[in-house]
Design brief:
Elements lengths: L1 H32 L2 E12 L2 E2 L11 H12 L3 E12 L8 E13 L2 E8 L3 E4 L1 E13 L1 E2 L2 E2 L1 H12 L9 E11 L2 E4 L4 E3 L2
Antiparallel strand pairs: 1-2, 1-3, 3-7, 4-5, 4-6, 4-10, 5-7, 8-9, 10-11, 10-12
C-alpha cells in the first residue's frame, strides 16, 4: 500500500511539473506570436555567391554571374545568404524574454500570391529590440506549369527597381518560426507578417 501511495504521489508531482512547463511554453510562444516584427535593414544579400545588393541594372552583372544565376533559376536551385536587421517589439511584460528559433519557414507574397519561399535551419536567438541575424536559405520560386514562374520573378524585380510607390504591387514577407521551449520545439501555428 505504501509503494502504491508513493507511486501515486510521484505521478501527481510529475503531472504538476509537466503542466507548469506546458504553461510556460504556451506563454513563451504567445509572447513571440503576438510580437510586432519589422525589417529595419538589409546589410548583405548574396544569391549563389553573387552579391546582388549593389546591382541595379542587368549591365551590373558580369557574364559569368548572369549565367550562374540563370542556370540556378532555371533549375529552381537558388540559395541565399543575407544579413538582416529584424526588430522585435514585445509588450512590456515580456521584454526580458528571449527565444531560440530552431527553424524558420518564410514566404514572400506578391499581390497576395506566393512568389518565393524557403526554410532557415540554423538556430537564431531573438530578443526584444534590434536583432542582427545572418540567414542562409534555399529559395524556391513558385512554379507555373511545373517550371519556375518567370512572370512572378520579373514582377518582383520590376517592383524592387521602381521608384514610384503608387503603382507598386503589394509585397508581404511572412515568417513561421519553430521555437525551442522547455518541452521541445513548438511551431507557431500560422504565418506572421513582417512589416517593412
Amino acid at each position: 500500500m505504501i509503494k502504491k501511495t508513493n507511486l501515486l504521489s510521484f505521478a501527481l508531482l510529475l503531472g504538476i511539473a509537466f503542466f507548469a512547463f506546458s504553461c510556460g511554453t504556451k506563454s513563451d510562444v504567445d509572447a513571440f506570436k503576438e510580437a510586432k516584427y519589422s525589417l529595419s535593414g538589409i546589410n548583405e544579400v548574396k544569391l549563389n555567391g553573387v552579391n546582388v545588393l549593389n546591382k541595379k541594372r542587368p549591365e551590373d552583372f558580369s557574364l559569368g554571374e548572369a549565367a550562374l544565376l540563370f542556370t540556378a533559376f532555371s533549375d529552381n536551385n537558388l540559395s541565399a545568404y543575407s544579413s538582416l536587421g529584424l526588430n522585435v517589439e514585445l509588450d512590456e511584460a515580456n521584454q526580458e524574454r528571449s527565444m531560440t528559433v530552431t527553424k524558420l519557414k518564410w514566404q514572400l507574397l506578391l499581390d497576395g500570391k506566393q512568389t518565393l519561399s524557403g526554410i532557415v535551419d540554423e538556430p537564431v536567438e531573438l530578443r526584444h529590440g534590434l536583432n542582427t541575424i545572418n540567414v542562409r536559405t534555399p529559395i524556391r520560386i513558385a512554379e507555373e506549369n511545373g517550371r519556375p514562374g518567370y512572370n512572378n520573378l520579373l514582377r518582383l524585380v520590376t517592383m524592387l527597381t521602381k521608384t514610384d510607390g503608387t503603382s507598386r504591387p503589394d509585397l508581404v514577407l511572412q515568417i513561421k518560426p519553430t521555437i525551442q521551449t522547455s518541452v521541445g520545439p513548438v511551431e507557431v501555428p500560422s504565418f506572421i507578417n513582417v512589416r517593412n
